[in-house]
Amino acid sequence: MIKCEFEDGGKATLRHVTISAVIIDAQQPGKVLLAKRAAFLKNPGKWCLPGGYLDRDETTSEGVCREVFEETGYTVKIVLLLRLIDQPTRPKEDRQNVEFSYIVEVVGQPGRMDKETTELRWFDLDTVPEEKDWAYDHGETLSWYKKYLKEKFKLPVVNNAVLT
What we know:
The chain has 164 residues and is of the alpha+beta class. It has one domain (16-156): Nucleoside Triphosphate Pyrophosphohydrolase.
């Protein structure tokens, strides 16, 4: 939560905006890149979709591309906004973050990953980690991606609902 003081002297506790990425590669159909979180982070040693907090003066699409590059070394382009989660009761989440999850495609060769990532691995969509091995609700987001590939429903998914 962000603690803020407003111009009129009022105070509030506000929510953060985060972004995450389902990373795909046209050269590796049916695979997704996942990152393992470092020991000093929340949910240490768990698999996640690369992402993080939105910076000031940054759009969500700029933020997700920046975070992917920082955590994986890959340059990516946006394919689609997959999911928007603004429920205050997200599983494994105590900060009530509002998350924008994008599908992104690799467009550049990998550079260096940062200290927040201890391992990167391309997984077949059918052999991703079990739910207990995921950070936050990122496993659920990947499940929505897999479902979208089969059914091609309208995106984004908002709070586990397909908008019609």
